[in-house]
Design brief:
Rossmann fold; 2 domains; five-stranded mixed sheet; two-stranded antiparallel sheet; 3 helices; about 25% helix; about 25% strand; globular; disordered C terminus; Glutamine amidotransferase domain-containing protein
């Protein structure tokens, strides 16, 4: 799909300290910050560095899409528009201006991937099956 659009994507493993250089930020049309097993509100150096990068990108009006962890790690601007919310999660989706969006869920997950993840969680006893429903 991306090849057809002639898009190129660079990947930075920020949890390992890999970040784009400041003088290269303007070369990008935008950034996608995906999920992570780490705590978005933690004090790990790379999380703090990522928050600082997000602030730079915001000041440059470079597009940011945050998914799950990427949604959580963004400090919600006071003028952000809440697009979706729920009792369980609170803010499910927000946008700020025309350049920042956060989505708590995983729109990239297919049904097969989701069922595979649920099966793994059941096998590791992270969730238990009772009758036909799942208990989390």
């Amino acid at each position: 799909m991306l090849e057809e659009e002639k898009e190129t994507w660079d990947m930075y493993k920020v949890s390992r300290g890999e970040f784009p250089k400041d003088d290269e930020l303007s070369l990008y049309d935008g950034f996608v910050i995906t999920g992570s097993c780490s705590d978005a509100y933690g004090n790990d150096k790379w999380v703090i560095d990522l928050v600082n990068l997000i602030k730079k990108l915001d000041s440059m009006h470079i597009k940011i899409l945050g998914i799950c962890f990427g949604h959580q790690v963004q400090e919600l601007p006071t003028k952000a528009e809440i697009i979706a919310k729920s009792e369980k999660t609170g803010i499910e989706m927000f946008k700020y201006g025309d350049h920042i969006m956060g989505i708590q869920g995983h729109p990239e997950y297919s049904k097969d991937l989701l069922l595979h993840l649920i099966d793994r969680l059941i096998q590791r006893n992270f969730i238990m099956v009772q009758g036909r429903g799942l208990l989390c």
